[in-house]
Amino acid sequence: MYNITETDVEFEQLLKTKIVEFEKQFENNLIIQESTMELLYKGVMHSDSNNFKNNRMIWNASCYVNIISYDLKVIGKNLMLSKTEWEKRYFARQAGLLIYEGTNDLFDLFGREFRTAISGLSDFEKLKECLKQITKRLNYYKETHFERLHNIRNVSIAHRDQNTVEQLSTIFSISWVEAINFISEFDQILNLTGQFLQEIMNKSVVEFQELNEK
């Protein structure tokens, strides 16, 4: 029934020798995500309390990206460490849903309002170019994976096709390593986006404060 590829079998053998290392890496990453989320949440709340609209938009975008990244790492951990074929495809479907929705939201978050908010920061042209590169990678990811993710989402997780043959055929078709790969590729984009937003936050804390004091 299940689409178990040669790559899946090879990866499972490799994983047996690396399992402790992978588990430790996941735990460290999740600790970092948790502390970062708490910091960003406080930043959003502080911006709300002081009516710092531009800061709020930037910190909120950063917090949103962190939430997606955190969820994706939790899903990725469970996907990687799953013991049964159904478990693997359950977490693969959850990842497909998260990525599908998250990608669309990222395009919204980095729209005209966001660009206007950061336009007053120093090195805006450099920041604009960085955002352009992120958008380019998101568009490429969407072109490459969205038809597949759309099918997974609409047939087997966000909406479930009442035709069980169609639903199960979609579930069975998912390869374990295929899911690991589309998670990993999206996670790389999130990491790049997080670095970009961190640079903006570092600037905005100082530069927007100076504007507020004038």
Short description:
With 214 residues, the chain is an all-alpha fold.
Instruction: Report the helical percentage.
Output: over 70%
Biggest beta-sheet profile: none
Task: Extract low-pLDDT stretches.
Answer: 210-214
H and E order = HHHHHHH
Strand content: under 5%
Give the radius of gyration: 20 Å
| SS class | mainly alpha
**Distance, first to last CA:** 67 Å
Q: Which terms summarize this structure?
A:
single chain, 214 residues, mainly alpha, elongated
Description:
The chain has 214 residues and is an all-alpha fold. The protein is 87% helix and 0% strand. Helix 1 (6-50) packs antiparallel against helix 2 (53-81) and helix 5 packs antiparallel against helix 7.
Summarize the helices and strands and which ones pair or pack.
Layout: H1 6-50, H2 53-81, H3 85-109, H4 112-118, H5 124-156, H6 164-173, H7 176-213
Helix pairs in contact: 1-2, 2-3, 2-7, 3-5, 3-7, 5-6, 5-7
